[in-house]
């Protein structure tokens, strides 16, 4: 690749990474502000946590809407619409006077921001070869994973210095920068398809066809359920660290950043691992290890042996698994789809965020004044993801053998 090509590739990865990171950044940056928001809006931290759950729901539903739009109108026009909705909703969040208003505006903010997340995954499938996708997703995770390092730290300092409303002012500025990058630097990777139907029946049929593909549902569910462990941590960590372990907003930001280094490091080690091992082998090893760590975390929490440092260490190791699971599961999920990459990306993201929202809400519902709800949900997510992967792989192999036998029979018949 020449210097010009490398420069274009670098710009492309940065813009796609920012589009993918807008959701995580919107989540992580306001986490240290939970106690401040609760005090300002005269409510509880548990009620403020519902604004996080509504954000997950907005991302989940929104991706199903944007998938067909990305097929019909190309990749960029729906992105502009979504980012504009995100802009208006962010203004609403900054001006919210009640927790109920904040919950609604966070829902709308997520609905707008998810357009870029869906489009980024589809663009990767549009531009790069299938065999490169896992490496590209790992590279995107490097950009995405920077957000949980920077966002909570910045959010903690902004909240301490100026108040929680200024967190959303920063998100507005970030959104404007992303809009400029999309307009000036991001190419249109797929032309509009005027023949792609937006009728509910056709859209439902398209989604159903994708869902029936064994490779899609196996790796999508594996990645989504494993990733839900991350959302359980995100939802529960403000209460666990700031309320139970009594760290302040700035300290929480640094703890969150430290733990996030595990995701960054493992996603880059994944690139090296792909030179020697297949994506399937990496996912199997990562989900197995994550399950073991999750069980240990839940066990010591149940027994009351969980100090601050051991909790940080185990969560760090647990989240290292995400850097191996997410890129490979995403690549394998989208691999069978070319012309419908936008819809497949949307469906994958909707499932991921829907399960994540469920895990987040479950931590809130099970809240009992201990870290056990967070640790227990994280462990259950890891164990379930490992079980889904093992069962799905057996089904994929069985169907492949059945199809091969059928093709052999047909070939024998044709020669008679």
TrEMBL record:
- Major facilitator superfamily (MFS) profile domain location: 12-393
| Mode of membrane association | Multi-pass membrane protein
Alphabetical list of Pfam families matching this protein: MFS_1
Q: Which GO terms describe its cellular component?
A: plasma membrane
Query: Among the record's GO biological process terms, what is one?
Result: xenobiotic detoxification by transmembrane export across the plasma membrane
Taxonomy, superkingdom: Bacteria
CDD domains associated with the record: MFS_MdfA_MDR_like
State whether keyword Transmembrane helix applies.
yes
The cellular location(s) given in this protein's UniProt record come to: Cell membrane
Keyword annotations = Cell membrane, Membrane, Transmembrane, Transmembrane helix, Transport
Where do transmembrane segments lie in this chain?
12-33, 45-66, 78-97, 103-124, 136-158, 164-186, 216-234, 254-273, 372-391
| GO MF term set | xenobiotic transmembrane transporter activity
UniProt lists the family membership as follows: Belongs to the major facilitator superfamily. Bcr/CmlA family.
This protein is called Multidrug effflux MFS transporter
Source lineage: Bacteria, Pseudomonadati, Bacteroidota, Chitinophagia, Chitinophagales
């Amino acid at each position: 690749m020449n210097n010009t090509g490398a420069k274009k590739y670098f710009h492309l990865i940065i813009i796609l990474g920012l589009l993918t990171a807008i959701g995580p950044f919107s989540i992580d940056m306001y986490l240290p502000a939970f106690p401040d928001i609760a005090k300002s809006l005269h409510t509880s931290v548990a009620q403020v946590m519902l604004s996080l759950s509504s954000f997950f729901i907005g991302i989940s539903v929104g991706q199903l809407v944007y998938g067909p739009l990305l097929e019909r109108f190309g990749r960029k026009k729906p992105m502009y619409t979504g980012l504009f909705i995100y802009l208006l909703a962010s203004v609403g969040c900054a001006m919210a006077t009640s927790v109920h208003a904040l919950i609604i505006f966070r829902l709308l903010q997520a609905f707008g921001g998810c357009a870029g997340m869906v489009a980024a995954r589809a663009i990767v499938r549009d531009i790069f070869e299938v065999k490169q996708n896992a490496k590209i997703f790992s590279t995107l995770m490097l950009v995405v994973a920077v957000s949980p390092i920077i966002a909570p730290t910045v959010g903690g300092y902004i909240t301490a210095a100026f108040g929680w409303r200024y967190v959303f002012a920063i998100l507005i500025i970030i959104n404007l920068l992303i809009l400029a990058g999309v307009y000036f630097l991001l190419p249109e990777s797929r032309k509009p398809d005027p023949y792609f139907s937006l009728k509910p029946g056709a859209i439902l049929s398209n989604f159903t066809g994708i869902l029936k593909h064994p490779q899609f549902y196996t790796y999508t569910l594996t990645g989504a359920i494993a990733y839900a462990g991350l959302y359980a941590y995100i939802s529960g960590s403000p209460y666990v660290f700031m309320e139970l372990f009594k760290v302040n907003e700035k300290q929480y930001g640094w703890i969150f950043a430290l733990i996030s280094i595990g995701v960054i490091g493992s996603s880059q080690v994944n690139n090296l691992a792909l030179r020697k091992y297949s994506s399937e082998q990496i996912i199997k090893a990562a989900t197995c290890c994550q399950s073991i760590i999750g069980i240990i975390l839940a066990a010591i929490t149940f027994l009351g042996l969980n100090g601050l440092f051991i909790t940080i260490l185990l969560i760090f190791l647990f989240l290292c698994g995400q850097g191996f699971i997410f890129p490979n599961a995403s690549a394998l999920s989208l691999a069978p789809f070319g012309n419908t990459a936008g819809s497949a990306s949307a469906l994958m993201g909707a499932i991921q965020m829907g399960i994540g929202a469920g895990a987040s809400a479950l931590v809130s519902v099970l809240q009992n004044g201990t870290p056990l709800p967070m640790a227990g949900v994280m462990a259950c997510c890891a164990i379930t993801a490992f079980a889904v992967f093992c069962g799905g792989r057996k089904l994929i192999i069985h169907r492949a053998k059945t199809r091969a036998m059928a093709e052999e029979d047909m070939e024998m018949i044709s020669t008679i």
